[in-house]
Amino acid sequence: MRPAGPFELDWVDSLSKGLKRLDGKDAILLDLTLPDSIGLDTFRKIHFEAPALPIIVLTGNDDDALSSKALQEGAQDYLVKGQVSGQILARSIRYAIERKRIDEALISEISKHKKLESELIMAKEAAEEAVKAKADFLANMSHELRTPMNSIIGFTSLLLDDSLTPDQKEFLEGIRNGGESPSNPDQRHTGLHQD
């Protein structure tokens, strides 16, 4: 937080001069009645040119509706000339600068969070696409392996019907049982083998 004072004041007598001298300022004390601009349009023009600067309206117009509108549009404070002491003005300037700093930090954090949220959504979508691609690949591979495996099981069953040596029969039964294992439930019920 800035010290209580003293503040360095850069005074101008018109909006056009003020718009040229916004660089390097910490805050703006703005009168809404200037020779080249009157009312909230004065605030809007300054706010458009310097949205990051806190603006404190300091005017002779004691109008509640106008003050509410100025605050709704982004003024940090609305003070009426003749009703404000130097101490209150200094406090208002300090608080306005601090509130604007907090607002800017909050906007920056919100922006970071939105960016992170967007990145997370993209990563989630990419992961879902990868899972789908993996499932499609496994389904295709399962189908591609199932067809030759069914043939192997069928031919093995046919061979088991022939006269075989005990070793040959044991090997062929091992092949058939392996092909019909619980890890291949579709192949157990192919109807190609004969018991």
Molecular structure report:
- Strand 4 (55-59), helix 3 and strand 5 (77-80) form a beta-alpha-beta unit.
- It contains six helices and five strands; from the N terminus they run H-E-E-E-H-E-H-E-H-H-H.
- It is rod-shaped and about 120 Å long.
- Helix content is 61%, strand content 8%.
- The longest helix has 75 residues, at 86-160.
- The N and C termini lie far apart (90 Å).
- The protein is mainly alpha-helical and 195 residues long.
- The protein has helices at 15-20, 40-49, 64-72, 86-160, 166-179, 185-188, and strands at 28-30, 33-34, 37-38, 55-59, 77-80.
- Strands 1-4-5 form a three-stranded parallel β-sheet, sandwiched between helices. Strands 2-3 form a two-stranded antiparallel sheet.
